[in-house]
């Protein structure tokens, strides 16, 4: 299925075309479930999040037209943002569990492979210009939805320091991406 | 300007807040504030969208995982509570009402984006200084938003979807009632482009006139009239 096909399905979904929505689910639910699982680290919660994500897609599909995102990126953004909203809401409750899973996360996993595959993307080149630990913080935040508080703890720096670090890194990234 | 604004500016301003939102690092409360701003402030929403675009390639690291079969029926149950039964009919994809509806929905979103800075500007000129149109696809996937500004004699085009065929150009036409289409010009390649409108044509732009895009040989129609298929069109509307 090409990006243009996905675009058509989203546009038809915005017009309440249920068969298009069903097909959109079949084509994209595995990717979006992967996003929810990665951020939430909990199968039952990821399943619930995925339900909510597709309800959002059904109700907000008309907004796709005003986004510059590719269709799949737009869907991923909805799933990521929703999963991050959920994890922010429950952060206190399961901080310990996240930590345990954090340790179990293998170092050169699929992430590293994907990085290798997409090395020509500018974002990776620009991340490479950052110091290693700061680039890792940006990647970790993006993929796992880590908060400033969690990043500060992992990098063993005060919260405000972490925030200053990351904001500087974001400004450098922006500067590099606009070059 | 408050102290909070000043310190925010020193830290990179709204653009960096947008980046922090997209990255997902903000604490719950600040994240909620940013989410409300996305709904209320089109300018901020654009910043967020730009950062989503910048970071999007990293999402290739998310491995697809098939969800259990129980999820889709659960979604259907949720939707059954929220929406009327599916209104989809065969042929709906091609129906005029369908595309009108889409154009209206898209226009509403665009109008919000354009109107907000206008509401803030104090001296608003009388009617029809600005017109908008959503040029929806005709047997194609070509879709543009158009904003016409009479004061600057300028047409701004925002490319939503649809590519040119190799060696072909998109040409923009103004159609008033039954009159022959008038060429506004060949649309430059790009996500957000502008065309200058000749003074003779400026007065012809009015609410209800139609804009259409045809596929033409590179450089535009050789005859001065559309020669290729119309790939998108839409009505001009006052905002």
Fill in the keyword field for this structure.
heterodimer; A: 179 residues; mainly alpha; Rna Polymerase Sigma Factor, Chain: A; Arc Repressor Mutant, subunit A; globular; B: 239 residues; alpha+beta; Immunoglobulin-like; 2 domains; 9-stranded antiparallel sheet; 24% strand; disordered N terminus
What's the arrangement of secondary structure elements?
The complex is a heterodimer of chains A (179) and B (239).
Chain A: H1 3-14, H2 18-40, H3 43-60, H4 71-90, H5 95-104, H6 110-117, H7 122-128, H8 132-144, H9 148-154, H10 159-178
Chain B: H1 3-10, H2 13-23, H3 28-40, H4 42-55, H5 71-82, H6 96-120, E1 130-137, E2 143-149, E3 154-161, E4 168-175, E5 182-186, E6 192-196, H7 199-202, E7 210-217, E8 230-235, E9 237-238
Helix pairs in contact in B: 2-4, 3-4
How would you describe this structure to a colleague?
The complex is a heterodimer of chains A (179) and B (239). Chain A is mainly alpha-helical. Helix content of chain A is 77%, strand content 0%. Chain A contains ten helices and no strands. In chain A, helix 3 crosses helix 4 and helix 7 crosses helix 10 (159-178). The radius of gyration of chain A is 18 Å and the shape is globular. Chain B has 239 residues and is of the alpha+beta class. Chain B folds into two domains: 1-85, no CATH class; 104-238, Immunoglobulin-like, CATH 2.60.40. In chain B, strands 1, 2, 3, 4, 5, 6, 7, 8 and 9 form a nine-stranded antiparallel β-sheet that branches. In chain B, strand 4 (168-175) and strand 5 (182-186) form a beta hairpin. Residues 1-10, 83-95 and 119-128 of chain B have low confidence and may be disordered. The chains are: A mainly alpha (179), B alpha+beta (239). The interface between A and B is large, with 77 and 63 residues.
């Amino acid at each position: 299925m090409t990006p243009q096909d996905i675009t058509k399905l989203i546009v038809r979904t915005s017009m309440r075309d249920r068969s298009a929505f069903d097909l959109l689910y079949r084509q994209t639910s595995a990717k979006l479930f992967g996003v929810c699982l990665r951020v939430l680290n909990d199968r039952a919660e990821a399943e619930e999040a995925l339900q909510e994500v597709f309800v959002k897609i059904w109700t907000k599909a008309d907004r796709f037209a005003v986004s510059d995102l590719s269709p799949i990126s737009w869907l991923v953004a909805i799933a990521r943002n929703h999963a991050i909203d959920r994890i922010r809401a429950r952060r206190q409750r399961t901080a310990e569990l996240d930590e345990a899973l954090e340790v179990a996360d293998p170092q050169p996993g699929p992430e590293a492979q994907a990085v290798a595959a997409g090395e020509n993307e500018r974002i990776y080149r620009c991340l490479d210009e950052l110091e290693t630990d700061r680039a890792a913080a940006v990647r970790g935040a993006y993929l796992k939805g880590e908060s400033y508080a969690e990043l500060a703890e992992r990098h063993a720096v005060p919260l405000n320091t972490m925030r200053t670090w990351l904001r500087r890194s974001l400004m450098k990234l922006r500067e590099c991406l606009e070059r | 300007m408050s102290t909070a604004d000043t310190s925010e500016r020193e830290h990179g301003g709204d653009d960096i807040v947008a980046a922090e939102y997209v990255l997902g690092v903000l604490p719950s409360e600040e994240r909620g504030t940013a989410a409300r701003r996305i709904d209320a402030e089109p300018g901020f929403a654009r910043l967020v969208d730009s950062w989503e675009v910048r970071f999007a390639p990293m999402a290739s690291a998310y491995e697809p995982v098939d969800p259990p079969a129980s999820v889709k029926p659960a979604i259907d149950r949720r939707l059954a509570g929220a929406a009327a039964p599916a209104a989809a009919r065969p042929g709906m994809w091609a129906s005029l009402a369908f595309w009108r509806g889409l154009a209206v929905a898209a226009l509403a979103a665009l109008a919000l984006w354009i109107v907000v800075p206008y509401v803030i500007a104090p001296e608003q000129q009388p009617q029809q200084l600005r017109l908008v149109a959503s040029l929806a696809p005709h047997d194609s996937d070509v879709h543009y938003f158009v904003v016409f500004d009479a004061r600057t004699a300028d047409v701004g085009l925002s490319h939503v979807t649809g590519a040119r065929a190799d060696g072909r150009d998109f040409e923009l036409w103004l159609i008033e009632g039954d009159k022959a289409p008038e060429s506004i010009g060949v649309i430059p390649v790009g996500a957000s482009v502008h065309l200058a409108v000749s003074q003779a044509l400026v007065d012809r732009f009015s609410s209800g006139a139609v804009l259409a895009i045809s596929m033409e040989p590179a450089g535009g129609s050789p005859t001065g009239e559309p020669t290729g298929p119309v790939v998108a069109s839409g009505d001009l509307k006052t905002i």
